[in-house]
Amino acid sequence: MALRWASTRCSSVARVLKMDDDIFVHVFQLSAILAKASLELSNRKVILCYVQKQMPISRSEGSKWKVTESEYPGSFFEDYCSGWAYLANMAAVRAMVTEAQYRPYFWVDDVHVTGTLARMGGVSLSRINHKYTTEADSLALWAKPGDPRDSGGFLDWGYAFGPTWGDVTLVARAHRKVLWCRKRACKCCFKAVNANADSASAPKNGSIGKAVVHSLSVF
């Protein structure tokens, strides 16, 4: 588990950011989150994340995410963090790693780690859902090729985390736009229509569109 590696190889760090490799992170938005949550991250075991609440458990035959009653009883998962990206202090990381030694493994790893292990380890989940977007279109429109003033003008992107669908060119453009905006003190915030993660629903067809935040990535 990556968190175990972090707790042993990077034990002196205060915080750990876990993220999928196809998620874009706006470093200055992340810095602002850290500054605002500094006291919270210092005083208790906590994860800052997109909190998934009352997510229904799939029992459907043929579903990639089918979970049996014996694996996880009930109709809903306990609250857990989206695996896209989350920020944990080292106290939370150590608590989850410790609990992992005593709890049977559950293959839906986001639920297992940030749900079960976090709860058993006394780790709190702090909701920053408004800092996520499920719309790859939001980032693509803001960081589209050409003159940066033509794509969002002097407005910064309004989120810290968003999907790129593995488009490394988009990632590079977005990082350049972040720096462009930083130098020009862009105001907040450029937002595409329906881009906030709280309004997420079904994914669109195609390579770019609305994603489903409850990704279940494997560490």
TrEMBL record:
GO biological process: protein O-linked glycosylation
Gene Ontology molecular function terms on file: hexosyltransferase activity
GO CC, alphabetical: Golgi membrane
Compartments in which it is found: Golgi apparatus membrane
Protein EC: 2.4.1.-
Enzyme class: transferase
InterPro entries according to UniProt: Glyco_trans_31
Principal location: Golgi
Keyword Membrane attributed: yes
Swiss-Prot/TrEMBL keywords: Glycosyltransferase, Golgi apparatus, Membrane, Signal-anchor, Transferase, Transmembrane, Transmembrane helix
PANTHER family the UniProt entry points to: BETA-1,3-N-ACETYLGLUCOSAMINYLTRANSFERASE (PTHR11214), HEXOSYLTRANSFERASE (PTHR11214:SF376)
Family: Belongs to the glycosyltransferase 31 family.
Protein name: Hexosyltransferase
